[in-house]
Amino acid sequence: MTVDPSLILRLAGRGDGVTADGRHVPLAAPGDSIGADGTIFAGPHHQTPPCRHYPRCGGCQLQHVDDDSYAKFLRDRVAAALTAQKLPVPDILEPHLSPPNSRRRATLKAMRLGGSVLVGFNEGRSHKLVDVRQCTILHPALFALVAPLRKLMGQLLGRRSLATIQLTLADQGADVLISGVEADGLEAHDALHEFAATNRIARLTLDEGHGPEDRWAPEPVTITLGGVPVPLPHASFLQATKEGEDALVQSVQQILEGASDVADLFAGLGTFALALAPGSHVLAVEAARDPILALRRAANLRQLPLICDHRDLYRRPLTVQDLKPFAGVVIDPPRAGAEEQAKTLAQSDVSVIAYVSCNPQSFARDMQILGSGGYHLQWVRPVGQFRWSTHTELVARISR
Ligand SMILES: C[S@@+](CC[C@H](N)C(=O)[O-])C[C@H]1O[C@@H](n2cnc3c(N)ncnc32)[C@H](O)[C@@H]1O
After folding, report:
1. Beta carbons of 184 and 207 less than 8 angstroms apart
2. Domain boundaries defined on the chain
3. Residue in 323, 308, 358 with CA at minimum distance from that of residue 338
4. Fold of domain 105-222
């Protein structure tokens, strides 16, 4: 059977459609066909992008692609990374896709342009800002703050400054951290107070270049993980959506079921440690001081069987000896992966590993190291928390 050379067969890593004869076509979906003049003729997997800022806004490159094709894209990213390391591709389970408007943490930018103030995301591969009037990914409780923030930034922004606004949805409501403005004086104080009170902000913090300073925090701010409220330090890592967190936790619990002693490496605020601790003894290891102290406080209050270790796993990975007590390990490193830790794990007796990754390439490299120590990759579940972006995450079951 001959294939039409102008038919889009797949999506490349950066999201372009790829024709049967190998051309890369931006904004094309699998099943589209490409006319001689470059016109895209929409096929069965081409959907109407739900956001008016598409395709300018850099956050969502794949809004023109339906869920079937998006899920296949995530699977293909994982398979391609494993194949590049010459590893066999295991069972790739149905991907988790977080629903629209579920993102509970995001970083916005704000600047003046002419007489107006823009608040939004960067355009794709550019420093220009898209002034967002609609957003199909942000949680409604966070998007509701964009217009009030535009007004506030009009009162605070200097003529040439570019401010960064980090939004996180905590148990008590929105946690807002603004950097890149100076807010001295009564007028600035009143503007901040009015914004916080009117919008029932949980905590409003300014970083004027000397570290975060709370300007409004009527009660302690927490994030509940595994049913346990944990004090939320400024700018902490949190899985991007609650639905993504639930999918990851469920898979990790399934992988480590029955393991009585578990190490949670790169533990953050304890997303996995707190979900596992009621049934297992857990050692949580994390390099950032504030989150590991917050986790220790929360776990101690509940008298959970959880020990916290403040430790840099790049410089001092757990040794083979350190790993001896553990039947299971959950490891969730930053984008760079965990090469040094994978080397000692490869020599250890740990029988099952739940590997959570936000970068299929570094995951595949670490899997190669674990494989050389006798571990097998049993299955991978891709995770699409950053819906409609090319950012691919995963959770994998690895065992001896
Ligand atoms: C992807 S996050 C995962 C956090 C946590 N597992 C969760 O799901 O919320 C990676 C974590 O690794 C921590 N980290 C970064 N470099 C580290 C290092 N060298 N040693 C230990 N932890 C590190 C970060 O502070 C962050 O909390």
Report:
1. no
2. 8-79, 80-99+238-399, 105-222
3. 358
4. OB fold (Dihydrolipoamide Acetyltransferase, E2P) (2.40.50)
pLDDT tens-digit series, residues 256-313: 999 999 999 999 999 999 999 989 999 999 999 999 999 999 999 999 999 999 999 9
What tokens were used for 265? 């490496």
* pTM beyond 0.95, yes or no: yes
CA-nearest residue, atom 27 of ligand 1: 268
Class of domain 80-99+238-399: alpha beta
Query: What does the alpha-carbon distance between residue 166 and residue 283 come to, in Å, rounded to a whole number?
Result: 30
Q: How far is the CA of 292 from the centre of ligand 1 (A)?
A: 10
- Ligand 1: atom nearest CA of 314 is 19
To the nearest 10 degrees (0 to 180), the angle between helices 339-346 and 360-372 is: 20
Gap from CA of 288 to ligand 1 centroid (Å)? 7
135 is catalytic: no
Q: Which residues line ligand 1 (CB under 6 A)?
A: 237, 239, 266-269, 271-272, 286-288, 291, 312-314, 332-334, 358
The complex scores an ipTM of: 1.00
Tell me the chain's radius of gyration from C-alpha atoms: 23
Ligand 1 centroid to residue 270 C-alpha, Å: 10
